[in-house]
Design brief:
It is built from eight helices and twelve strands. It is an alpha/beta fold and 343 residues long. Strands 4-5-6-7-8-10-9 form a seven-stranded mixed beta sheet, with helices on one face. Strands 3-2-1-11-12 form a five-stranded mixed beta sheet, covered by helices on one side. A hairpin with a 4-residue loop joins β4 and β5. The longest helix has 27 residues.
């Protein structure tokens, strides 16, 4: 079993707002140096779902901890299923689980832990109040990761979005943005008696989307200046689920974000990767490449032939984690494999 790493002590750590100030220097941590090709991270999402997975989750974390290749972990959101209560106690329990990751953990929220919490079987909460609680529980130290060994990240905490973070590893820029299912949080809160989005809800989606897009623009601008080989965008929402035909009520709020992805990826000389969960079935494709029907679905101008999307297994398919490695120069920027859980 790999030795437990001591917590990296960060002194004078300031939360940098993407687009407003420079990203913090990369931490000197016991794990692989950030400049090394071969940097490997694990990706999970839509877990734990239900009692059996809640019980198994600590063991799965320990398996990831024992993986000698893994230097950091990403959770793509949905820390519960869509039909269970969004309680403070549950959030704190999952935070306790997250604290057992030995490596730095980057977490971006999913719809199940906030925007869908209006449902009666979720507790009929005000979703914006739940998002505020998610921020208090999981982003209590903005500008740094979760986990036992931490590194600093550029955070939009000063703008009110501590979950939006950017960092760099192995010549690749990573962007985590709060882009969630349920039409990016715009679907009506029917559990609270609303048949249309409320004015407060619309404003919150507009503000969050603007912050997401500003973060994306700033990250790509910096990646171009540094001549990075790749950019990795991480979010919960699967905006390109191949298993269904969406209505405008499913995707309308994603349109500005999709256009921003196309604009930035098409101007970037390297490779772009979009990591998501939400639809629960492993998939890889190029949804914004020339000729893709998704370009018409979203009314997108242009195309992004260099963008690869990867969806991780989740929910009842959550039998593995994705081990992702940054390749050496001359090789694909990212390669990955699904690693089965052993218990």
């Amino acid at each position: 079993m790999r030795r437990v790493r001591a917590i990296t002590v960060l002194t004078a750590l300031a939360s940098a707002v993407a687009g407003g100030s420079a990203a913090p220097a990369e931490a000197r941590a016991p794990h692989r140096d950030a400049s090394d090709a071969g940097y490997t991270f694990a990706v999970i999402g839509d877990v734990p779902y239900g009692d059996a997975q809640i019980a198994a989750f600590p063991g799965w974390i320990q398996q990831i901890n024992r993986d000698p290749a893994v230097s950091s972990v990403v959770h793509l959101g949905d820390i519960k299923n869509g039909s269970s209560v969004c309680s403070d106690d549950y959030f704190r329990m999952i935070r306790g689980d997250f604290d057992t990751f030995e490596d730095p953990l980057v977490y971006t929220p999913g719809d199940n832990e906030w925007t869908d919490c209006h449902r009666a079987n979720n507790g009929a909460y005000d979703p914006l109040e739940r998002l505020a609680m998610v921020r208090r529980v999981f982003f209590d130290h903005p500008g740094r990761t979760l986990g036992q060994s931490i590194f600093p990240v550029a955070s939009q905490a000063g703008r009110g979005f501590p979950e939006n973070v950017t960092y760099r590893r192995a010549g690749v820029t990573f962007v985590a943005a709060n882009v969630t299912g349920s039409n990016n949080g715009l679907q009506p809160w029917t559990g609270l008696g609303h048949t249309e989005p409320t004015p407060e809800q619309r404003q919150a989606v507009q503000d969050r989307t603007a912050a997401d897009i500003d973060e994306l623009h700033a990250a790509f601008a910096t990646a171009r200046e540094r001549h990075d080989r790749g950019v990795v965008v991480m979010q919960q929402a699967d905006m390109f689920d191949p298993t269904y035909t969406p209505t405008d009520n499913d995707i309308s709020a994603f349109k500005p974000w999709v256009q921003a992805l196309v604009d930035e990826a098409s101007r970037f000389a390297g490779q772009v990767y979009l990591l998501d969960g939400d639809s629960h079935v492993y998939n890889t494709d190029r949804p914004l490449a020339t000729g893709s029907p998704w370009l018409g679905t979203y009314g997108v101008r242009g195309a992004a032939d260099n963008l690869t999307r990867v969806t991780v297994d989740g929910s009842s398919n959550n039998t593995d984690y994705l081990r992702v490695t940054v390749g050496a120069p001359g090789r694909p920027v990212l390669s990955w494999q699904r690693v089965p859980y052993t218990s």
